[in-house]
Amino acid sequence: MIHKKALITNYPSSPEDFRLQIIKHYLENAGVEVITISNAFWGNYKTKTKYSKNLFSAILNSYKFISYYCLVFKTIRKNQFDIILIGHPPIIDFFIIKLFSKKSILSKVYIDFFISLFDTLILDRKKFRKKSLMARLFFKMDKFLLKKASCIITDTDQNTHRYIKLFDCPSQNFKRIMVGSKMLISENIDIFNANRFKDNNNVKIGWVGAFINLHGFQKIIDTAALLKGKSFEFHIIGNGPNNELKYYRELTLQLGLNNLTFYNELNYKESMLILNNCNICLGVFGESEKTKSVIPFKIFDYLCLDKTIITQESNALSELGFQDNIIQVEGDSTSIARAILDFKEPEPAANNNSRKIDKLICGDIKSAFLYNE
Fold first, then answer.
1. Which of 139, 154, 291, 303 could form a disulfide with 353 if both were Cys (CB 3.0 to 4.6 A apart)?
2. How many C-beta atoms lie closer than 10 Å to residue 20's C-beta?
3. CA-to-CA distance for 144 and 148, rounded, in angstroms?
4. Is 153 helix (H, G, I), strand (E, B) or coil?
5. Which domains, ranges and CATH numbers included, belong to the chain?
6. Distance between CA atoms of 313 and 284, rounded to whole angstroms?
7. Which residues have CB under 8 Å from 161's CB, separation 6+?
8. How confident is the model at residue 373 (pLDDT cuts 50, 70, 90)?
9. How many angstroms separate the CA atoms of 104 and 41, rounded?
10. pLDDT in tens, 199-212
11. 177-236 confidence digits (pLDDT tens)
12. Could you report the per-residue pLDDT of 246-300, keeping only the tens digit for each?
């Protein structure tokens, strides 16, 4: 048994943000005592979006920041931690801890660099021009973190290599922890024993996500148009930050497509039950380098459901394996449609995917936190 103590700050207050919940679960399984502190200001991804769009609301709620940091430093003073992991977004926590803590504390600080602001907002989503003031600010913030942190957690080795090149930072400071699936830690979600609806006349194709550049959802609409009139049904779960679902519903009407069913955002269990009834699940088809460097949550969910996955080819997927489940295609609708047309239902077999993913993440956790003395 490993006897260590860990603090996780910026811990998610929403069950939908479960990356750090997965890390906490695996640390505790390894015998680590874990204390978590949630930042009421950030809350979850929805409140982050709200404050980013409304500066006045952010200022009014800034008192939550002060009380949060008082609690963080009080907790650090009262405990001897071996690990301090700062969840996303880590920039403010890291800066304040670095400014006001002893040097001995800094060697124990890890940052979860799950999302690069520059990579996501500038290179992927193109919210600001690459040479704009905001782009330069995000770049400098990210580079400061990657240069100064003693250990950086990323989700794939491919992402690590890209960050090292993009920000010119030390390679030895990075550790990988894959994102995994909520199914790995959800004891009360009976997904695997759910009755799958079989329809021999139609192949059901599932997709879950957000209508953002990374996911390349327009290509799925284009694929559905290519397969119009054939025996394929698309089941689409999710929405975008600006209610893009409304646009896509109207677009499918304009195109005369009746092979898509939209569900809007659903809770995790409802989403997984719908996907469990699908023959094929679709991954991501974005245009940016980020698309080829990450393995999204949905891929792990699909694997735990033992689905055939069609997704854009990516070097990051080689870190996973699962060649029998994952079909990699070029990122265009013609290639996606061809893969769907070539699909053949696999023979029933024991689903050991969850066990394999569990082993991968256990290895990542041990490598990152427990064997680095």
1. 303
2. 21
3. 6
4. strand
5. 4-180+358-370 (3.40.50.2000), 203-354 (3.40.50.2000)
6. 9
7. none
8. very low
9. 28
10. 567 899 999 998 88
11. 999 999 998 865 666 555 555 556 789 999 999 888 778 899 999 999 999 999 999 999
12. 999 999 999 999 999 999 999 998 999 999 999 999 999 988 888 889 999 999 9
In sign, the C-alpha dihedral spanning 268, 309, 223, 219 is positive
Give the closest residue to 97 by CA, choosing from 61, 129, 72. Answer: 72
Q: How far apart are CA 63 and CA 53, in angstroms?
A: 18
Per DSSP, helices labelled H in 168-323 are 217-226, 244-254, 268-276, 297-304
For tokens 């890291």, name the residue: 94
Distance of CA 72 to the CA centre of its chain: 25
**Number of alpha carbons in the 13 Å side-chain half-sphere of residue 354:** 14
CA dihedral 94, 98, 103, 105 (to 10 degrees): -40
d(CA 111, CA 276): 34
Beta bridge partners of 175: 153
Q: Which residues pair with 84 in a beta bridge?
A: 7, 109
Helix ranges (DSSP H) in the chain: 19-29, 45-53, 55-60, 63-78, 91-100, 103-106, 117, 133-148, 157-167, 217-226, 244-254, 268-276, 297-304, 333-341, 353-365
Q: How far apart are CA 145 and CA 147, in angstroms?
A: 6
Q: Which amino acid, one-letter code, is at 167? A: F
Question: Which tokens go with 102?
Answer: 């002893």
Count the neighbouring beta carbons within 10 Å of the beta carbon of residue 14.
13
